[in-house]
Amino acid sequence: MINLKEQPVGTLKITCPEVTASYFMPVFLGGFARKFPRVSIELLATNRHLDLIRERVDFAFRVGAVSNQDFIVRKLSTIQRVLVACGGQERLPGFLFQSSLGGHGVALLPAYVCQPALTAGRLIRVLPGWDLAPYDMALIFRPIENGEKS
After folding, report:
1. For the segment 93-124, what is each residue's pLDDT rounded down to a tens digit?
2. Tens digit of pLDDT for each residue in 63-92?
3. Rounded-to-10 torsion of CA 31, 25, 71, 66
4. What are the residue ranges of helices labelled H in 36-145?
5. For residue 72, which phi and psi values (nearest 5 degrees)?
6. C-alpha torsion sign, points 128, 82, 118, 88
7. How far apart are CA 146 and CA 150, in angstroms?
8. Alpha carbons 17 and 137: distance in angstroms, whole number
9. Beta bridge pairs of residue 31
């Protein structure tokens, strides 16, 4: 990205977990595109932790512990997780389907993802008295070096 004092221009490369790409990125990127129409976004949705330097990634959304001291880390939220099972013969789309072993198994999912299906009865909570430790969502990025264009 160049010329941040005026209208930003260039490509912004972002990586995030697949569930983040499905649930948060459409709204975030839509708003960003309206505000900065001359910036193109390259989104890498993967559950693997990419090497941000080698892959030339500008921003990474990460879940869990982040310990890289070469980057700036900003905690965004804490995410609750629940253990759920898909009831009956219903098959759920996307990663819910894949995570729950073909629609009939057990999956560990972020609460915000499965809450609508729990409320509707399409999923049931397994071991409801057992709470799992939450994990953090963080944004990580490189600091701008002296002489580097911002």
Report:
1. 455 544 444 455 677 778 888 888 888 877 88
2. 887 776 688 888 888 888 888 887 654 544
3. 140
4. 94-99, 111-120
5. -90, 130
6. negative
7. 10
8. 10
9. none
Structural tokens at position 69: 């001291």
Calpha distance 141→130 (Å, rounded): 35
| CA nearest to 85, candidates 109, 63, 66 | 109
- With beta carbons less than 8 A apart as the criterion, state whether 39 and 1 touch: yes
Length of the chain (residues)? 150
CA–CA separation, 138 vs 148, rounded Å? 24
Tens digits of residue pLDDT in 52-71: 888 898 999 888 877 766 88
41 has which bridge partners? 12
R_g (Cα) of the chain, nearest Å: 18
Which string of b and e fits 15-45 if b means at least 16 CB within 10 Å?
bbbebbbbebbeeeeeeeeeebeeeeeeeee
